[in-house]
Design brief:
This protein has twelve helices and eight strands. The chain is α/β, with parallel strands linked by helices. It has one domain: 3-Layer(aba) Sandwich (Rossmann fold), CATH 3.40.50.1110. The strands form two sheets. The protein has a six-stranded mixed beta sheet, with helices on both faces. A two-stranded antiparallel ribbon has the order 1-2. This is SGNH hydrolase-type esterase domain-containing protein. It comes from Fistulifera solaris.
Length: about 280
C-alpha cells in the first residue's frame, strides 16, 4: 500500500486516512516509541514528537523542518541521560505530556546499517542494555546506507552479501518480537537523489526485504507464533518524488523535505490502527 501523489500532496491508499494533530495525540497517548535507524528515521521521529507536543492549534512547516528540531543531537552531545553505558546509547529522548498523569516517550537510536541494527537487537536479547524494556512500538528505519556506502556498512562482514544480511536481520528481529511480544514496524528504504543504477539497487533492496518479511509473517501465522512484526513500504510511496527533477528535496541527496516524512508518520499510524497494535498494548 503506497498511495499516489497530486503535486506535493500524498493521497493515501483506500482505507487509510490523514490524521489531525489531535487525532495523533489520542492514538499515541501514553505510548513509548523507539526509532532505530538512519537520519531520515531521526527526523521523522522528531516530527512526530513535535506534532504530539505542539502547544498551539497551528504550526509552520519551516518549524517542523528546523535543524534545531530534526537534527538535534545529530553530532552530539546525546540528549539522553539514560543507558549511558549502552553500546547503542540513544541520541534523542523526548517526553510528551498528554495529561497530568500520562506521558509518552520518543527515543531515537542511531543505527544506519543492517549490521548496526543486528548488533542492537543482539544486545537487547542478551539483556545488556534493556532500552526496549518499556517500549510499545519499535520502528526500524534503514536501507540507504547499505546502498550508497556499502564499504562502511560491510566492514568486517565481507563474507555476507547484502541479501544474506537482510535475511539474517529479519530473522533476528522476528526472534526478538516473538520473545518480547513487542510490535516492530520496518520502514523500507527511501532513495538518494542519484541516477537510475542507485534507484534500481534501492528498489531491489526493498523488494528483497519485503519478500523476506512476508515469508516470516506467513510462517508466524502458520505455526501460531506471535506476529507483531510488520512493515510499511515507504520507499514505494516516495519513489515517485525521489528522482532528480521530481524530488521533494532535503538538505542533501539522501534526505527529503517535510512531506515525505509526514507520509511516513501517516503510513505507520494507519498500520498501527489497522493491526490494533497499540490497542493490544493497552489491553495487555
Amino acid at each position: 500500500m503506497t498511495g499516489t501523489w497530486i503535486g506535493n500532496v500524498w493521497v493515501p491508499p483506500t482505507g487509510w486516512k490523514y490524521h489531525t494533530p489531535n487525532e495523533l495525540r489520542q492514538i499515541y497517548s501514553g505510548k513509548r516509541i523507539l526509532w532505530v535507524g538512519d537520519s531520515t528515521g531521526r527526523r521523522t521521529a522528531m516530527n512526530l514528537y513535535a506534532l504530539l507536543d505542539w502547544k498551539n492549534s497551528s504550526f509552520l512547516p519551516q518549524e517542523l523542518s528546523s535543524p534545531t528540531l530534526i537534527d538535534a543531537a545529530k553530532k552530539g552531545p546525546h540528549e539522553c541521560n539514560k543507558w549511558i553505558e549502552a553500546d547503542f546509547r540513544p541520541n534523542n529522548c523526548r517526553t510528551v505530556n498528554f495529561t497530568s498523569e500520562e506521558e509518552g516517550e520518543h527515543i531515537y537510536v542511531k543505527a544506519v546499517c543492517h549490521t548496526d541494527v543486528e548488533r542492537f537487537f543482539q544486545t537487547e536479547m542478551e539483556g545488556r542494555a534493556n532500552i526496549t524494556e518499556n517500549i510499545d512500538v519499535i520502528i526500524v528505519a534503514i536501507g540507504i546506507w547499505d546502498v550508497i556506502r556499502p564499504q562502511a556498512c560491510r566492514k568486517g562482514f565481507q563474507n555476507r552479501t547484502l541479501v544474506e544480511m537482510v535475511s539474517d536481520l529479519v530473522e533476528l528481529t522476528n526472534e526478538f518480537q516473538i520473545m518480547t511480544r513487542k510490535a516492530v514496524i520496518w520502514r523500507t528504504s527511501g532513495y538518494s537523489e542519484q541516477q537510475e543504477p542507485i534507484i534500481n539497487k534501492t528498489s531491489t533492496l526493498n523488494y528483497v526485504t519485503m519478500d523476506k518479511l512476508d515469508q516470516v509473517r506467513v510462517n508466524n501465522t502458520l505455526y501460531g507464533r506471535p506476529n507483531r512484526f510488520n512493515y510499511v513500504n515507504w520507499g514505494g510511496a516516495v519513489l515517485a518524488r525521489s528522482r532528480p527533477g521530481e524530488r521533494i528535496k532535503g538538505d542533501m541527496k539522501p534526505h527529503y523535505g517535510l512531506e515525505p516524512r509526514h507520509v511516513l508518520i501517516e503510513m505507520i499510524t494507519n498500520l498501527l490502527e489497522k493491526e490494533e497494535y497499540l490497542k493490544y498494548m493497552s489491553d495487555s
